[in-house]
Design a protein that fits this description.
2,3-Dihydroxybiphenyl 1,2-Dioxygenase, domain 1; 2 domains; alpha/beta; four-stranded mixed beta sheet
Length: 159
Protein backbone atom coordinates (compact mmCIF):
# COMPACT_ATOMS: atom_id res chain seq x y z
CA UNK A 1 0.00 0.00 0.00
CA UNK A 2 1.27 3.45 -0.89
CA UNK A 3 1.61 5.74 2.13
CA UNK A 4 -0.57 8.84 2.10
CA UNK A 5 2.43 11.07 2.87
CA UNK A 6 5.93 10.13 1.82
CA UNK A 7 9.14 12.13 1.93
CA UNK A 8 10.60 12.28 -1.58
CA UNK A 9 14.36 12.75 -1.74
CA UNK A 10 16.02 13.67 -5.03
CA UNK A 11 19.27 11.87 -5.81
CA UNK A 12 21.47 12.34 -8.83
CA UNK A 13 21.71 8.61 -9.59
CA UNK A 14 22.24 6.53 -6.45
CA UNK A 15 18.92 6.41 -4.56
CA UNK A 16 19.37 2.66 -4.13
CA UNK A 17 22.83 3.07 -2.61
CA UNK A 18 21.54 5.71 -0.20
CA UNK A 19 18.47 3.67 0.80
CA UNK A 20 20.61 0.57 1.33
CA UNK A 21 23.01 2.55 3.54
CA UNK A 22 20.13 3.96 5.61
CA UNK A 23 18.62 0.48 6.03
CA UNK A 24 21.98 -0.86 7.30
CA UNK A 25 22.62 2.10 9.59
CA UNK A 26 19.34 3.03 11.27
CA UNK A 27 16.95 0.81 13.22
CA UNK A 28 13.42 0.39 11.85
CA UNK A 29 14.70 1.11 8.34
CA UNK A 30 14.43 -0.96 5.17
CA UNK A 31 14.43 -0.87 1.39
CA UNK A 32 10.91 -1.94 0.42
CA UNK A 33 10.83 -1.61 -3.38
CA UNK A 34 13.06 -0.79 -6.33
CA UNK A 35 11.21 0.57 -9.37
CA UNK A 36 12.81 0.67 -12.79
CA UNK A 37 12.03 3.22 -15.49
CA UNK A 38 9.54 1.93 -18.06
CA UNK A 39 11.18 4.13 -20.71
CA UNK A 40 14.01 6.57 -21.29
CA UNK A 41 13.88 9.81 -19.33
CA UNK A 42 16.07 12.96 -19.17
CA UNK A 43 18.58 11.53 -16.67
CA UNK A 44 18.35 7.82 -17.44
CA UNK A 45 17.42 4.96 -19.67
CA UNK A 46 14.68 2.38 -19.72
CA UNK A 47 15.42 -0.23 -17.05
CA UNK A 48 17.51 2.08 -14.84
CA UNK A 49 16.50 2.42 -11.20
CA UNK A 50 14.05 5.33 -11.22
CA UNK A 51 12.68 5.26 -7.67
CA UNK A 52 13.42 3.39 -4.47
CA UNK A 53 10.85 3.02 -1.72
CA UNK A 54 12.36 2.81 1.75
CA UNK A 55 11.85 3.68 5.39
CA UNK A 56 14.22 5.55 7.69
CA UNK A 57 13.44 5.06 11.38
CA UNK A 58 9.90 4.12 10.37
CA UNK A 59 9.38 7.17 8.12
CA UNK A 60 8.29 6.28 4.57
CA UNK A 61 10.54 7.76 1.90
CA UNK A 62 10.89 7.66 -1.85
CA UNK A 63 14.29 8.15 -3.45
CA UNK A 64 14.11 9.55 -6.98
CA UNK A 65 17.05 9.29 -9.34
CA UNK A 66 16.38 12.60 -11.05
CA UNK A 67 19.79 13.65 -12.32
CA UNK A 68 21.83 16.68 -11.37
CA UNK A 69 19.12 19.35 -11.71
CA UNK A 70 18.47 19.72 -7.97
CA UNK A 71 20.79 19.36 -4.98
CA UNK A 72 20.11 18.51 -1.35
CA UNK A 73 20.32 21.36 1.15
CA UNK A 74 20.22 21.91 4.89
CA UNK A 75 16.67 23.19 4.43
CA UNK A 76 15.69 19.53 4.90
CA UNK A 77 17.25 17.23 7.46
CA UNK A 78 16.51 14.09 9.39
CA UNK A 79 16.73 14.72 13.13
CA UNK A 80 17.62 11.54 15.01
CA UNK A 81 17.19 11.52 18.79
CA UNK A 82 19.89 9.37 20.38
CA UNK A 83 19.89 7.88 23.87
CA UNK A 84 23.59 8.10 24.75
CA UNK A 85 27.10 8.88 23.51
CA UNK A 86 27.59 5.38 22.09
CA UNK A 87 24.54 5.69 19.83
CA UNK A 88 25.48 9.26 18.91
CA UNK A 89 29.00 8.14 17.98
CA UNK A 90 27.79 5.10 16.01
CA UNK A 91 25.38 7.06 13.83
CA UNK A 92 27.64 10.10 13.39
CA UNK A 93 30.64 7.94 12.54
CA UNK A 94 28.60 5.82 10.10
CA UNK A 95 27.46 8.90 8.18
CA UNK A 96 30.73 10.83 8.24
CA UNK A 97 32.85 7.69 7.75
CA UNK A 98 30.91 6.70 4.63
CA UNK A 99 31.95 9.74 2.60
CA UNK A 100 29.91 12.28 4.57
CA UNK A 101 31.04 15.48 6.21
CA UNK A 102 30.81 17.07 9.63
CA UNK A 103 29.04 20.32 10.26
CA UNK A 104 28.16 22.35 13.35
CA UNK A 105 25.97 21.62 16.40
CA UNK A 106 25.31 17.94 15.76
CA UNK A 107 24.67 18.30 12.02
CA UNK A 108 26.38 16.24 9.35
CA UNK A 109 25.77 15.35 5.71
CA UNK A 110 25.88 11.95 4.13
CA UNK A 111 27.76 11.39 0.89
CA UNK A 112 24.56 11.99 -1.10
CA UNK A 113 24.16 15.46 0.46
CA UNK A 114 21.27 14.64 2.81
CA UNK A 115 21.60 16.47 6.13
CA UNK A 116 21.27 14.70 9.48
CA UNK A 117 20.99 16.08 13.00
CA UNK A 118 22.33 13.48 15.41
CA UNK A 119 20.84 14.89 18.60
CA UNK A 120 21.20 13.27 22.03
CA UNK A 121 17.94 13.48 23.97
CA UNK A 122 19.82 15.04 26.90
CA UNK A 123 20.61 18.05 24.70
CA UNK A 124 17.02 18.65 23.65
CA UNK A 125 15.72 18.09 27.18
CA UNK A 126 18.24 20.57 28.58
CA UNK A 127 17.69 23.47 26.21
CA UNK A 128 13.89 23.10 26.20
CA UNK A 129 13.59 22.69 29.97
CA UNK A 130 12.28 25.17 32.52
CA UNK A 131 15.74 26.03 33.93
CA UNK A 132 16.59 28.87 31.54
CA UNK A 133 20.10 29.40 32.96
CA UNK A 134 20.94 25.72 32.36
CA UNK A 135 19.36 25.94 28.91
CA UNK A 136 21.63 28.85 28.04
CA UNK A 137 24.75 27.05 29.31
CA UNK A 138 23.85 23.93 27.32
CA UNK A 139 23.05 25.94 24.21
CA UNK A 140 26.36 27.82 24.44
CA UNK A 141 28.24 24.52 24.89
CA UNK A 142 26.45 23.01 21.88
CA UNK A 143 27.40 25.98 19.73
CA UNK A 144 31.10 25.04 20.10
CA UNK A 145 30.60 21.40 19.00
CA UNK A 146 30.44 19.44 15.81
CA UNK A 147 29.41 15.97 17.05
CA UNK A 148 27.56 16.43 20.34
CA UNK A 149 29.53 15.46 23.44
CA UNK A 150 26.97 14.13 25.94
CA UNK A 151 29.29 14.46 28.95
CA UNK A 152 30.02 18.11 28.10
CA UNK A 153 26.29 18.81 27.69
CA UNK A 154 25.55 17.19 31.05
CA UNK A 155 28.35 19.21 32.70
CA UNK A 156 27.00 22.44 31.19
CA UNK A 157 23.51 21.56 32.40
CA UNK A 158 24.81 21.10 35.97
CA UNK A 159 26.73 24.38 35.75
Amino acid sequence: MIARNTICLWYESDALGAATFYARTFPDSAVTAVNRAPGDYPSGKEGDVLTVEFTVLGIPCLGLNGGDTFKQSEAFSFQVATDDQAETDRLWNAIVGNGGQESECGWCKDKWGVSWQITPRVLTEAYTGSDRAAAKRVFNAMMTMRKIDVAAIEAARRG
